[in-house]
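Researcher: Here's my situation. A collaborator sent me these components and asked whether they could plausibly form a single complex. I don't have experimental data yet, so a predicted model of the whole assembly would be a useful starting point for our discussion.
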Amino acid sequence: MNSHFQAVDLQKAYRLLNHGPTVLVSASHEGVDNVMAAAWACALDFDPPKVTVVLDKTARTRQLVEGSGWFVIQVPTAAQAQLTHQVGTRSLFDQPDKLANIGVQLARVEGHAAPLVEGCSAWLMCRVIDEPHNQTTYDLFIGEVVAAWADDRVFRDGHWAYEHADPQWRSLHYVAGGHFYAIGEPVVVDPQS
Amino acid sequence: MNSHFQAVDLQKAYRLLNHGPTVLVSASHEGVDNVMAAAWACALDFDPPKVTVVLDKTARTRQLVEGSGWFVIQVPTAAQAQLTHQVGTRSLFDQPDKLANIGVQLARVEGHAAPLVEGCSAWLMCRVIDEPHNQTTYDLFIGEVVAAWADDRVFRDGHWAYEHADPQWRSLHYVAGGHFYAIGEPVVVDPQS
């Protein structure tokens, strides 16, 4: 990672997902890395920060999450729309070279085994909180966020700065069939009202 | 509701939340109606459609959801930013006239007891799937969507049409402290790539 890769205070980590972006989920187990896209990821708690993510039983990434007990939720940018769609529609089961074919670059942070996708705007390192009933019945995984980082060109001082960054940094919000919306302009109300 | 209030095919209901908007949660029990805001709501399944939503133990609306077994998730618009912040920061415990003071207008759909907030862009009528462990441990509620509606000025043919509607219809994506982002412009990739 580069000099813009900055740690985020865990008490502010929920803000990385609060606006509902489509995310990338990455994991690694027994030497196998994979990355998938997920529109169904959400903050669950502030402190300690927790997240939920839905991982389909057909997803190879889910096996890596279950095998390792760890996953990374990261926020892809508008510049990564094609990559986001491709990792979400291609399976490592069919394409052993999926990540290389798509051009996904992975990075590691010392002390953490799960891989981070380069070029994203934010990353949450999550430890699986084992909830077999949720995982089996709903494909719903709960993770505790043990570390978080963001690119300070678009997230700094605990806030997104989309309106001050290049539009290529905007988060993606998936609809269907290759259609996303980028996050838009600020709407500010009187917090005392 | 008006002539723009149209039923949404349940197989497409997930699309109403897929882009991660901040929502309003409404419920009614024993003659008490309430509405709260929630940034932590997410689609959980396609068919039958299910959703998750985090309802804090301090929220009066949570008691109404637990008492009645029903809630409505609705997508507020940029025009409702102040209302969304106010229903999310004021409690019915302190303000018995909360909804009237804020100017929240409720409507009912025949056959459903839970109230809908007028002026929103979409509504999902949800029956609580009782999961006591999730509710107690994580404040996490799961609902099955039994009916869905949208305003055809901004959602039609199973797709959001934000780019073709007045900007006041855009969904809200909460950050913190009265700061939201509105949903932005479309980003379309080749679905075959």
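Model: Some features of this prediction you could bring to your collaborator: Chain B has a mean pLDDT of 97. The first helix of chain B runs from residue 60 to 68.
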